[in-house]
Amino acid sequence: MAALGDRSEAPEAAAYIDLVSDRYETSDLSDIALALDYAAFWLKFQDGRGLVNDILNFGKIERHKGLVKLLCEQARGAIENQLAVCMPHVRTQRLPNGVSLNVIDLEHFAHKFTFPPPGKTSGEIHDRICQGNDDPVVTLGYGPDSLRSGHAAFL
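User: That's the sequence. What structure does it adopt?
Assistant: Structure tokens below.
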């Protein structure tokens, strides 16, 4: 599930998708990963076992579907709010090699202490910039003690 949430191309992610393909579409798995990410952010150091079990469908299917839908709606709304605040502050520079370099100071321009956290915010900014863009893209989100990068289309 973590590999799907982080958009990993590891062979284990593909093996997991194949394993559960008779029960879930890839979009369902992405929703479950997002719901887990959102719940984990708010649970922090709490156990949350019952909630996580419901998200992962270890109980009743109706409860699983309703919970994943609710958490994804809340997560997507929070992501849209964060992007509305951040996107105007992304600085873009075209490098001589054709790469689009995008940089944002998350410490100054992103909401703090809420979902999505800085790393996910950087990833969402990167994904938004890559939509409809066939050029190579590098995105850097930085704070006082962190750096998050994303890249696409270097082949």
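The chain has two domains: 1-83, 90-155.
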